[in-house]
Design brief:
By secondary structure, this protein is an alpha+beta fold. It has three helices and twelve strands, in the order H-E-E-H-E-E-E-E-E-H-E-E-E-E-E. The longest helix has about 45 residues, at about 1-45.
Length: about 300
């Protein structure tokens, strides 16, 4: 009986000693962790590029412009950690103030500053210099256009180029064609006679769907490739009397843009194809393909 009591007392004593040792170990670990954290904060404060504190209370998307005094309390959050926390909470680009700010001072920090979207307006004209028969049968006809094109950098990059959305309005469209044509849009017989008898048919057009690939966007010389689709409307049925007043258009072009300054540029389309036809909305679909060149003046904003 006495031996059992002794064994129980020894067991209780050993458990108490084990619990005490565990508490001591945990306390030492916590103390060591706190010491490491304090040392890391002190090292961050010493390694900061400036000793000025950053006021992270933003008003209207930017921090206060007043200069804050230097932090002296080691327990306070270091400026580097404060700036990192502010940037993580509000993802944006930090823009430091001018470099003439005094030592130990922070002039100004902007948050939530959005990068503006690149846009262009191009005033351009086009003239054709030949025909070919690939998608259409008409020939010996020329097309002249003038209008405004809008480009917006909307779709990121593709094959190393900026990919832009393109739309175009053509208030001036003029078709130079033989007065008498066959159902295919070509001069009627006798060809040599009717080729010399011309008429000019005015119209207008719009191309709401298009894209442009432009390379070397940050350089002075910028080659591009573009395509546009829309409709053309004329005052009479073209390119033949059996066709329609309204035709569908498809343009493809290659060229180069030369920047004159950061805002203005000169655009030269070295080769482009302008196709229009009625897509068989009536029984006869003559159509026309013209080779052309264009020249434009672009404004960037």
């Amino acid at each position: 009986m006495q031996s059992n009591r002794v064994w129980r007392n020894e067991t209780s004593s050993s458990r108490l000693e084990g619990l005490t040792a565990a508490i001591v170990r945990i306390g030492c670990a916590l103390l060591l962790g706190l010491l490491c954290l304090a040392q890391a904060r002190r090292a961050g404060a010493q390694g900061a590029p400036t000793s000025g504190s950053i006021d992270s209370r933003a008003w209207g998307g930017r921090l206060a412009e007043s200069v804050a005094p230097a932090a002296t309390d080691d327990a306070a959050e270091p400026p580097v950690l404060s700036a990192m926390n502010a940037a993580a909470e509000r993802p944006s680009r930090l823009a430091m103030g001018p470099p003439d700010a005094g030592a130990g001072q922070v002039k100004e920090i902007y948050l939530d500053r959005k990068v503006p979207v690149k846009q262009e307006m191009i005033l351009e004209g086009m003239m054709s210099y030949g025909n070919y028969k690939i998608f259409a049968s008409g020939y010996d006809e020329k097309l002249y256009t003038g209008g405004v094109e809008y480009d917006r950098h909307s779709w990121g990059r593709f094959l190393g180029s900026e990919m832009d959305y393109v739309a175009e309005i053509l208030p001036f469209v003029l078709l130079d064609k033989p007065l008498k044509t066959n159902p295919y849009g070509s001069p009627s017989y006798p060809v040599n006679v009717n080729k010399g008898i011309r008429e000019y048919v005015p119209g207008l057009g719009i191309s709401p769907i298009g894209f442009r690939w432009q390379w070397r966007s940050g350089k002075k010389i910028r080659p591009y490739l573009e395509a546009k689709g829309g409709v053309l409307a004329f005052t009479k049925k073209v390119p033949a009397t059996q066709a329609t007043y309204v035709n569908f258009s498809l343009q493809s072009a290659t060229g180069v843009q030369v920047m004159l300054n950061p805002k203005w540029g000169l655009r030269l389309g070295v080769f482009s194809d302008f196709h229009f036809s009625n897509a068989f909305i009536v029984a006869s679909n003559p159509g026309l393909d013209v080779m052309n060149a264009n020249l434009g003046l672009s404004y960037h904003f």
